[in-house]
Design brief:
It is globular, with a radius of gyration of 16 Å. The protein has about 200 residues and is mainly β. About 10% of the residues lie in helices and about 40% in strands. The strands form 2 sheets. The protein has a 6-stranded antiparallel barrel with strand order 1-2-5-4-3-6. A 6-stranded antiparallel barrel has the order 7-8-11-10-9-12. The model has no long low-confidence stretch (mean pLDDT about 90).
């Protein structure tokens, strides 16, 4: 489990396209410290398994389903990525429950800067709007954020200077895709209540 508190900005150093998957090599000096085969690392909010680790880099395989549901397929050599290791049992719960299971992708619609923060509008794919509520949590490219406004086709978040400086969200432009993971609790409640759209 992750919490959506990005530990460092990494960099994609190699991309290998396979028949039904891709293999990424990512540089991340902090998250690779002590990493070993089989460990999990979230890359832009997607939980990936470490296949190999050498020095400050790790390699992970991304299957076709993940490429289809996320925007990892758009990454190229040199792309910056948000990296987070799983939460340890006695660690601080800094964000919210993040599984690293992306529900879909959105697109940066607009950015409105101010003196101390920036409001970012992001499109919502069909079917996810019902899980997004004002002042609720959402994960954008692996970053735990609080929803400011929630619409049927978009939502907004406010980004503080730290988030702008230390995550990829500070560099995304209108038109750029982002990975979205909605609050898993809302999905479980919907399923248990047997409400429309629950069988996903």
């Amino acid at each position: 489990m992750f919490t959506g508190i990005v530990e460092e900005l990494g960099e994609v150093t190699a991309v290998e396209t396979l028949d039904d998957a891709s293999r990424f090599r990512v540089r991340g000096p902090l998250v690779t410290r002590g990493a070993k085969h089989g460990d999990s690392i979230a890359v832009n909010g997607v939980c990936l398994t470490v296949v190999e680790q050498e020095g400050e880099e790790f390699t992970a395989d991304v299957m076709a389903e993940t490429l289809k549901r996320s925007c990892l397929g758009a990454l190229t050599v040199g792309s910056r990525v948000n990296l987070e290791r799983p939460m340890v049992a006695d660690g601080r719960f800094g964000g919210h429950i993040v599984q690293g299971h992306v529900d879909g992708t959105g697109t940066i619609v607009a950015r409105t800067p101010s003196d101390n923060w920036e409001v970012v509008e992001i499109s919502l794919p069909a079917g996810l709007a019902r899980y997004v509520v004002e002042k609720g949590s959402i994960t954008v490219d692996g970053v735990s954020l609080t929803v400011v406004e929630a619409g049927t086709e978009h939502f907004t978040v406010s980004l503080i200077p730290t988030t702008l400086a230390l995550t990829t969200l500070g560099h995304k432009e209108p038109g750029d895709p982002v990975n979205l993971e909605v609050d898993v609790i809302a999905k479980y409640v919907e399923r248990l209540l047997g409400t429309p759209g629950a069988a996903r």
